[in-house]
Write a structure and sequence with these properties.
It contains twelve helices and 17 strands. It is α/β, with parallel strands linked by helices. Strands 1-14-13-17-15-16 form a six-stranded mixed sheet, with no helix packed on it. A four-stranded antiparallel sheet has the order 2-8-7-4, with no helix packed on it. The protein is globular. The protein binds iron/sulfur cluster (2 copies). The site of one iron/sulfur cluster has 15 residues, from helix 7 and helix 8.
Amino acid sequence: MTDFSFSLLTGDTGPLAKGARPDSLRVPLEGHRPVLAEGDQVLAGTLLAKARDDRGDMHAPLAGIIREVSRFAMLIEVMEERRVDPQTAPMEGGDILRRWLRSMGIDVRPLRRAPVLIVNAVPPEPGISIHDPLLRDYRKTVELGLETARRVVEYARLYLMAARGNRANAFADCTVVHVPPVYPNGLPPLVAKAVTGREHLPGQHPENAAILSVSDLYFIGRVMETGRPLTQTVMTIAGQNHLVHVGTPVDFLVAEARGTVEDGDHVILGGLMRGIPALNTDQGVAKDTTGLHILRKSAAFVPVDAPCLGCGECERRCPARIMPGMISRCSEFKQFARAELFHIHSCMECGICGYWCKAKRPLLQYIRLAKYELALLRSAITPAERPPLDPTKEALRENSDA
Ligand code: SF4
Ligand code: SF4
């Protein structure tokens, strides 16, 4: 993809294609603790790893033998087609249902009690159209997901957020809110603000609303329909939407799409603005991977560690109204705590600053590095020693002296 546009208009999308069965799966284990080891046999749906938080447990997408377990992934050699028996969902709602969904692989972090539920149908990024076929062809599954979410969220008001110009039929008793079809209007902090008028920190929950995307509802609906754990994701690949087994290697997907990866090309998992480059073509896709793009060597943006020119272009473009240039400098010189003075936690990681940076600095990467280091810093010290979220000027002085 060489021509980039910020438009979120998806046009007419085709039906959801079912991904083929690869010979092996590399299931990512980030945020999970494996419960099986090398040599163990699994059926499709066998528990592989417990989630360390509310992101949902990980289950085997296909039957086979575990050939390798590392900190990062579990390699499964796929064998015959056998699945675990379906489970029955609890009759109760609330926490009991939430815990069951978590054990079935659903990321329940956005599922919490709130007076307002916002269903986000705005594409997360340009070139990603996963919501369209789900809303059009899997309506019943999505509605079952919504009904299940209602039993946990217990909302009083329901909103459907859609990009103006994209097709998105409303649900019963739902208010439709349209936003301009321009990136980054589909990112949760902006979606919440469009409905509630309030801002919240990215990564935290809005005060009075729960936000679930159309694909979240589809996944919940699938688990309820089948009684089997979630082991698939929906991805846009070359303009077509696919239902893909978690852990499917990148090279398998590229070959299925009749694409090629040459030396120097970048394979991006997710969208072009926020996606993560694949480390290698063996890497398996995760539950939250929404797309795959091949950025040719000739078209790839090559960020360089050039000094900031102080031009202010990144600040003018930033939807969070913060100072990406200053934050990137803090990160570059390892003054991570100082980045908090420039409100790094307000960054929604949209990547727009890096796109426009005159000096081609890797701004989003610097910001993600600083957030990662800050999270490590917090987890390594006791709560009593934990610095306040809004550091004082003394902290600034100390860091400047360092
Ligand atoms: S990625 Fe850059 S432009 Fe986007 S919110 Fe963060 S600092 Fe602002
Ligand atoms: S756009 Fe780039 S060069 Fe300009 S102020 Fe921001 S970081 Fe510095």
